[in-house]
Amino acid sequence: MTTDSPPSSLFEGDTPDGYRCGFVTLIGAPNVGKSTLLNAMIGEHLAITSRRPQTTRNRIPGVLSREDAQLIFIDTPGLHHGKSALNRYMDHIAQDALSDTDIVALLIEAGIGPELQVGVSTVAHQVLEALRPRQQRVFLIINKMDRIQRDHLLPIISAYQDIYPFEQIIPISALKRDNVDQLVEQFASALPEGPALYPPDLLTDLPERFFATEIIREKLFRRLDQEVPYSTAVTIDSWRDQGERGVFIDATIHVERDSQKGIVIGKGGSQLKEIGTQARGQLEKLLNSRVHLKLFVRVEPRWTRSDKSIRKFGYQRQD
Fold this sequence. Notes:
- The chain starts with 19 loop residues before the first strand and ends in a 7-residue tail after the last helix.
- A hairpin with a 3-residue loop joins strand 2 and strand 3.
- The strands form two sheets. A six-stranded mixed beta sheet has the order 2-3-1-4-5-6, with helices on both faces.
- Helix content is about 30%, strand content about 20%.
- Helix 6 packs antiparallel against helix 8.
- It is built from nine helices and nine strands.
- It folds into two domains: about 170 residues, Rossmann fold (3-Layer(aba) Sandwich); about 100 residues, 2-Layer Sandwich (GMP Synthetase, Chain A, domain 3), CATH 3.30.300.20.
- It is α/β, with parallel strands linked by helices.
């Protein structure tokens, strides 16, 4: 991980002949397991996860460097065509990631209906129609295979083969890591030859402050009920690295209504204290340092519906 900006030119390192390097973009509907798959392939908890859909809001790059290849995975928000400013932003980020990538990995959730019927989702149809004229390499990743019987796999493969000429169709379970290593091998062999773009010890080009806000947001998604997590955003107010004393972080959790503020804080501050404790533990692992975390809660009415507000909270479209 790094706090530096993305490199403007190729990494000036030595790579052997035949070395492969390129981008693999993970895309699909909400809650199909894109972030879980990214973490499994990288071997680190890079992207936040929860059982709730639409947890990811940003483009999350993860770099896997090997002796023969460097794979740059891009996790994206789930495509769902919501109407709020925040939903429009997430949809833009996901679709924009398709424009400049070497491999598109379309994730679907393994599922079968009565009499082994398979329904191809609207999101899958729309993604594939957008990709058809681009002639990009498209992998179909059938995730959550641990939830169905193996003999139910063929109808799923057949249904998708009928609508698109995929480069590969690969069943996996990202949660159980079943077939994940084989998937990475297939990605690596399909990438173009070229030198590494990043130093071999780098996991991502996003700054540590970004991951701090994501860690806090993950705890909100995992601890809060109903729709409250979707109305929260996190910003860093101050960040002070004081050496042996540790890193001092002040952060604000933004909500849309006073009632949500009360839920986040909890009775006697109990909920906010627990969120802070859980986030602090993960931040100490991330930063390899003692962390002093203070959390505040502030009401920002209807922030998810305002383009100005989402930009203020870091959700900035790059047109």
